[in-house]
Design goal:
Elements lengths: L1 H7 L12 E4 L5 H12 L3 E6 L3 H13 L3 E6 L5 H15 L4 E4 L14 H29 L2 E6 L2 H5 L5 H21 L4 E8 L5 H4 L3 H9 L9 H12 L10 E4 L6
Parallel strand pairs: 1-2, 1-4, 2-3, 4-5, 5-6, 6-7
Bound molecules: NADP nicotinamide-adenine-dinucleotide phosphate (NAP).
NADP nicotinamide-adenine-dinucleotide phosphate binds next to α2, β2 and α8.
Length: 261
């Protein structure tokens, strides 16, 4: 299915995001991949960040180029503050700007609170929450200088509703909402919009790992009765990355088939 969609993709040079540079963290697979392909389709130069999935990120960049766009894979563990600093320097040295930053990289290490290890808690917070702080911290000065920009943080309905067995993940995703609103207030006067997207139950490798019982329970909680796709999330990110959302900042928007309403 991914292949079929890719064959139909074209990246027109005069798209809505022509001349813009976008960085999507964790874009070698899953939701990040869909976001990267969609932003490229809208004409942006897309930097496809990866940590472990180098080959897959190279494939995403190649797919963008094949469709007539411009994409480049860029390795960096977002939980590493200094590495994010180097990535920011590299991006600015090469492209002289960044217009769209999508903090999508995220992991789960589920466990009930009585069994959750300190390492499970720390790893999830370091990646999902500190990772977004790290990139925002290093790129903000460029957004401020440009007096424009879009920062989009991929949170989760779990950060809004909580979920048994995911105290670490829910804390990281709720933390992202606080980070989003605070940075939105700091940067609003300089034309930079900062918003959070909260996906519900999306079909990716992250949810492939769930057992049948959990999947059934999740599906039963979705009024629309189906899982979402990466493209469902990418559609909202596309809106928040483009000019039609220039007066929207500090918001948390769910893409969840009605799950969290
Ligand atoms: P996924 O298929 O498991 O992909 C996770 C992505 O995060 C991978 O591209 C991975 O890159 C990247 N990543 C993990 N640790 C990283 C690090 N330290 N540095 C850089 N990249 C890192 O998950 P997904 O479902 O696409 O999830 C994407 C985002 O949506 C996550 O933030 C997740 O929490 C959120 N979300 C997902 C769902 C859902 O139902 N799937 C629901 C709500 C929110 P590498 O493979 O290169 O390491």
């Amino acid at each position: 299915m991914e292949k079929e969609a890719a064959e139909k993709r074209t990246c027109p040079s005069g798209g809505e995001l022509a001349g813009k540079v976008a960085l999507v963290t964790g874009a070698g697979r899953g939701i990040g991949r869909s976001i990267a392909l969609t932003l490229a389709e809208m004409g942006a130069v897309v930097l496809v960040n990866y940590n472990g999935s180098r080959e897959r990120a190279l494939e995403v960049a190649a797919e963008i180029e094949k469709a007539g766009g411009q994409g480049e894979a860029i390795g960096c563990d977002v939980s590493d503050y200094d590495a994010c600093g180097k990535m920011a320097e590299e991006v600015i040295r090469k492209y002289a700007r960044l217009d769209i930053l999508v903090n999508n990289a995220g992991i789960t290490k589920d466990n009930l609170i009585l069994r959750m290890t300190e390492a499970e808690y720390d790893r999830v917070l370091d990646t999902n929450l500190k990772g977004a702080f790290n990139t925002i911290r290093h790129f903000s000065r460029y957004f401020l200088k440009q007096r424009s920009g879009k920062i989009i943080n991929i949170s989760s309905v779990t950060g809004v509703m909580g979920n048994a067995g995911q105290a670490n993940y829910a804390a990281s995703k709720a933390g992202l909402i606080g980070l989003t609103k605070s940075v939105a207030r700091e940067l609003a006067g300089r034309g930079v919009c900062v918003n959070a997207v909260a996906p519900g139950f999306i079909n990716t490798e992250m949810t492939d790992a769930l057992n049948e019982k959990v999947r059934e329970n999740m599906l039963a909680a979705i009024p629309m009765g189906r899982m979402g796709s990466g493209e469902d999330v990418a559609g909202l990110v596309a809106f928040l990355a483009g000019g039609r959302s220039d007066y929207i900042t500090g918001q948390v928007i769910c893409v969840d088939g009605g799950m969290a309403m």
